[in-house]
């Protein structure tokens, strides 16, 4: 998978992956509307200009097609990074694309001097994502019960973290 910053040409494909407000909330949180608004999509395009990095949006491509999107946020004052808004093209799910992309984003985050922790939040019903995060070495630290309202439903949200000293760099990357 080729990974680069999210670009203008990725906007239409990403927008087509969601069919409901619940889909968008699962990906982007309760503050993002469905259908995706142009003003929101524009916020995904400024990664290359951020100094220092605050919230970078990455696009993973497989055979030239948008396969996954994920963001890495940085809190430099607290020495942490946050993986967020991870989504895989619905037509490409089940191929470990999120794992591949996230391995690269985790390595990149820990290459930043001063980043001592990476964290993420995931809705507890999203078992596929949870399996991926745990496989990557994230540790479940707690659950915010009924923290998000989606229509009449309330969703629980789990917090996962990985400390620098827990990070195990893949063998291939160590040899490179």
UniProtKB/TrEMBL annotation:
Which molecular-function annotation in GO is an example for this chain? acyltransferase activity
The cross-references to CDD domains, in alphabetical order and at most eight, read: NAT_SF (cd04301)
Keyword annotations for this protein?
Answer: Acyltransferase, Transferase
| Pfam families linked | Acetyltransf_1 (PF00583)
Domain of life of the organism encoding this protein: Bacteria
Q: Does the keyword Lipid biosynthesis apply?
A: no
Annotated SUPFAM superfamilies: Acyl-CoA N-acyltransferases (Nat) (SSF55729)
Q: EC annotation? A: 2.3.-.-
EC top class, as a word: transferase
Annotated N-acetyltransferase domain ranges read 1-160
Identification of the protein by name: GNAT family N-acetyltransferase
């Amino acid at each position: 998978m080729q990974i680069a910053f999210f670009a203008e040409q990725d906007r239409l494909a990403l927008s087509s992956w969601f069919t409901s407000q619940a889909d968008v909330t699962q990906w982007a949180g309760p503050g993002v509307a469905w259908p995706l608004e142009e003003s929101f999509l524009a916020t995904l395009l400024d990664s290359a200009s951020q100094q220092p990095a605050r919230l970078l949006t990455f696009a993973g491509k497989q055979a030239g097609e948008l396969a996954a999107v994920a963001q890495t946020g940085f809190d430099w004052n607290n020495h942490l990074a946050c993986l967020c808004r991870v989504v895989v093209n619905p037509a490409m799910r089940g191929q470990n694309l999120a794992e591949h992309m996230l391995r690269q984003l985790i390595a990149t985050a820990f290459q930043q001097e001063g980043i001592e922790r990476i964290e993420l939040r995931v809705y507890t019903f999203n078992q596929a994502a949870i399996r991926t995060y745990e496989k990557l070495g994230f540790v479940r630290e707690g659950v915010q019960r009924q923290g998000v309202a989606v229509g009449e439903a309330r969703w629980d949200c789990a917090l996962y973290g990985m400390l620098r000293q827990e990070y195990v760099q893949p063998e291939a990357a160590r040899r490179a």
